[in-house]
């Protein structure tokens, strides 16, 4: 029996771009699926197909057991959607926006008012509730859009990058609301670029790239695959990169990666803070000077490096020099060293292989 969100072989092209290239999904009722992927991976396109906003070229899908292509109107009545771009009415106040949504969904005026008040409070919009949305900041709009998606609790919800642009406190507030919804039986598909967020909220994670699911599994399975925490060292001078890489590989549980221009060497480890002390002693013992050392959680890039052997690529044309993205111009791997990923720029990266089932 298919899950509350089900898709088989979804393909959607825009000109030459295969935004979805054969996506299968199956989200059991009452669970959260995190659709994780870099810019341009196809996340929003998948959400738009599943929420009936666009039609796929081929494939089939159902939501809450209703066929998305045959009965779009019925699907729309069973879902809630919070999009990547806010869909609030600029000329209504925050409060009016929320009450209007409630009434559209046939709530009584009294219930709609109560729910609006509650959500405005939760998303820290109470003070601005009676100003028109046009005067809101970007983050405020984002929160209003999320609140609007939460006025009613439909059985199936879609949230496209719900926390992008939220400050930590509001992100936390949203995480709590999401957890309550799911505890109440809602099925949720959320897209994110943050592994940490998928880790926190999702029962299952699908990693997408170039319109394809390249890995799926629980967060634990994915982390086991990705190697959990990382030790990251920035050495003082370029000639210390190679010896530091050798030291780190000695402590590591997987592929190390080297970013030459920042003199940064990273390796997945297990062992936490105690291990960090050992690494420092070893580096010190070999006279390798360091500017920085840290233990950090895997990022989306780490996941991509583990799964595909190269860093996450962004949209075509945006690749070179993208700030904060490992694997862009200027990043080279240690050549010829087994166990070291070549994080050379995307231009040289291979197509990701067939989908891998992740298991711990
Ligand atoms: N309406 C459209 N017309 C043309 N190309 C499109 C359209 N919508 C999406 N695309 C292309 O399809 C690909 C997937 O886009 P999509 O918006 O699904 O990515 P995404 O994973 O949501 O990315 P982001 O993290 O940036 O939101 C991209 O290459 C994008 O440029
Ligand atoms: Mg998107």
UniProtKB/TrEMBL annotation:
Residues 317-360 have a biased composition (Low complexity). InterPro entries: AAA+_ATPase (IPR003593), ABC_transporter-like_ATP-bd (IPR003439), ABC_transporter-like_CS (IPR017871), ABC_transporter_ATP-binding (IPR050763), DrrA (IPR005894), DrrA1/2-like_C (IPR025302), P-loop_NTPase (IPR027417). PROSITE patterns: ABC_TRANSPORTER_1, ABC_TRANSPORTER_2. It comes from the Bacteria. Keywords: Antibiotic resistance, ATP-binding, Cell membrane, Membrane, Nucleotide-binding, Translocase, Transport. Residues 5-235 form the ABC transporter domain. It is a peripheral membrane protein. Pfam families: ABC_tran (PF00005), DrrA1-3_C (PF13732). GO terms for molecular function: ATP binding; ATP hydrolysis activity. Residues 314-360 are annotated as: Disordered. GO terms for biological process: daunorubicin transport; doxorubicin transport; response to antibiotic. Its main location: membrane. SMART domains: AAA. It is found in: Cell membrane. Belongs to the ABC transporter superfamily. Drug exporter-1 (DrugE1) (TC 3.A.1.105) family. This is Daunorubicin/doxorubicin resistance ABC transporter ATP-binding protein DrrA. The lineage of its organism: Bacteria, Bacillati, Actinomycetota, Actinomycetes, Streptosporangiales.
């Amino acid at each position: 029996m298919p899950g509350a969100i089900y898709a088989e072989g979804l393909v959607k092209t825009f000109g030459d771009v295969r935004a979805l290239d054969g996506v299968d999904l199956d989200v059991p009722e009452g669970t959260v699926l995190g659709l994780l992927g870099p810019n341009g991976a196809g996340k929003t396109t998948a959400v738009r197909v599943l929420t009936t906003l666009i039609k796929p070229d081929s494939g089939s899908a159902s939501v809450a057991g209703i066929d998305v292509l045959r009965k779009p109107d019925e699907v729309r009545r069973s879902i809630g959607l919070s999009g990547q771009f806010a869909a609030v009415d600029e000329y209504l106040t925050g409060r009016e926006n929320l009450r209007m949504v409630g009434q559209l969904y046939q709530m009584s005026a009294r219930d709609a008012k109560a729910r609006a008040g509650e959500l405005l409070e939760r998303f820290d919009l109470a003070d601005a509730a009676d100003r028109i949305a046009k005067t809101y900041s970007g983050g405020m709009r984002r929160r209003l859009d999320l609140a609007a998606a939460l006025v009613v609790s439909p059985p199936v919800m879609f949230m496209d990058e719900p926390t992008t642009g939220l400050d930590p406190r509001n992100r936390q507030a949203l995480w709590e609301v999401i957890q309550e919804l799911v505890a109440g039986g809602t099925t949720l598909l959320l897209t994110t670029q943050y592994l940490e967020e998928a880790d926190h909220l999702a029962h299952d994670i699908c990693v997408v790239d170039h319109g394809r699911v390249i890995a799926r599994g629980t967060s634990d399975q994915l982390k086991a695959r990705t190697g959990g925490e990382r030790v990251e060292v920035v050495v003082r001078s370029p000639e210390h990169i190679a010896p530091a890489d050798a030291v780190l590989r000695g402590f590591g549980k997987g592929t190390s990666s080297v970013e030459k221009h920042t003199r940064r060497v990273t390796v997945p480890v297990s062992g936490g803070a105690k291990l960090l002390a050992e690494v420092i002693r070893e580096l010190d013992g070999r006279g390798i000077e360091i500017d920085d050392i840290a233990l950090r959680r895997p990022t989306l890039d780490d996941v991509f490096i583990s799964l595909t052997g190269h860093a996450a690529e962004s949209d075509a044309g945006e690749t070179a020099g993208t700030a904060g993205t490992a694997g862009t111009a200027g990043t080279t791997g240690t050549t010829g060293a087994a166990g070291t990923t070549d994080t050379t720029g995307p231009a040289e990266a291979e197509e990701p292989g067939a989908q891998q089932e992740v298991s711990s």
